[in-house]
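Hi R.,

As promised on Friday, here is the backbone we talked about, encoded as structure tokens. Could you run it through your design pipeline when you get a chance and send me back a sequence?
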């Protein structure tokens, strides 16, 4: 009997050891997969871009800097982003903030107009018939085509740039909001009518929560396009901004700073989209929790 108990104890200990070994192996493999997906593969992608840049720079040594040369020549901009050495000599941080201010102002104004218009279009057939042709005509127009009109109206570069961003931000948000509103299940609306729920309460309690993913999709598209457009607008209007910085450095044939500006523009656009996605997660989760309660 004692021998049998000892044998069972050994089997259990051996099984536990095997389980622990399998768990450790699985954990290590999962960590390697996560590390590969989140670090190694993206790093390889960026490394490929740097190698391509380096190869092109070696072929055009008269004009294009190599990555180490660009890093060395941009150290002042990188280490001192908020310097002020004169009226037109500002650090890259100030230029970026000026562009962000224009983009966010135009984007927020566009959202304040686009979301209500999208609700009107999605909830009313006469509004669809009235506004859809206007949207389809103006949506394909290049944002820069509005710049001369804005300059004629405001006669100033700063409000003209904000107006162009405002126009640019309208169409994706209007279209996605209208799509979200029109996609709300008719069964939910029928139940609301049976309960004699007022129209404003239907909009607040049923249509808005169901439309939030579509609305935020439109907002993210609008913000991305707005950030693209502001660089081109500032190239044409001049003044303080990341777009004018790119054009000014190119005019001086200083591609070192142009490469730095491209990197800053890309990272800023990524952070803007990430911030809006976080707001979307926060708002949609809170909204769903409020509706359930």
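Update: got your reply. Pasting your designed sequence below so it's all in one thread:
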């Amino acid at each position: 009997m004692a021998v049998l108990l000892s044998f069972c104890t050994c089997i259990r200990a051996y099984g536990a050891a095997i389980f622990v070994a399998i768990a450790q192996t699985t954990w290590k493999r999962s960590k390697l997969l996560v590390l590969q997906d989140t670090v190694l593969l993206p790093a390889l992608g960026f490394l490929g871009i740097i190698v391509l840049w380096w190869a092109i720079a070696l072929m055009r040594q008269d004009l294009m800097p190599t990555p180490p040369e660009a890093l060395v020549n941009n150290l002042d901009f990188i280490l001192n982003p908020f310097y002020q050495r004169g009226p037109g000599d500002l650090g890259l941080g100030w230029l970026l903030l000026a562009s962000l201010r224009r983009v966010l102002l135009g984007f927020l104004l566009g959202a304040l107009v686009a979301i209500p218009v999208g609700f009107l279009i999605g909830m009313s057939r006469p509004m669809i018939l009235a506004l859809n042709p206007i949207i389809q005509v103006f949506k394909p127009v290049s944002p820069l085509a509005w710049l001369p009109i804005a300059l004629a109206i405001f006669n100033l570069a700063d409000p003209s740039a904000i107006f162009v961003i405002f126009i640019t931000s309208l169409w994706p948000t209007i279209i996605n909001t209208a799509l979200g509103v029109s996609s709300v299940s008719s069964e939910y609306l029928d139940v609301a009518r049976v309960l004699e729920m007022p129209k404003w309460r239907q909009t607040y309690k049923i249509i808005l929560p169901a439309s939030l993913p579509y609305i935020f999709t439109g907002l993210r598209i609008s913000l991305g396009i707005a950030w693209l457009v502001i660089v081109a607008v500032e190239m044409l209007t001049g003044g303080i901004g990341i777009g004018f910085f790119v054009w000014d450095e190119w005019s001086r044939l200083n591609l070192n700073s142009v490469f730095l500006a491209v990197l800053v523009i890309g990272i800023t656009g990524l952070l803007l989209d990430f911030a809006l996605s976080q707001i979307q997660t926060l708002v949609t989760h809170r909204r769903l929790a409020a509706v359930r309660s």
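One thing I noticed while checking it: The chain has eleven helices and no strands.

Thanks again,
M.
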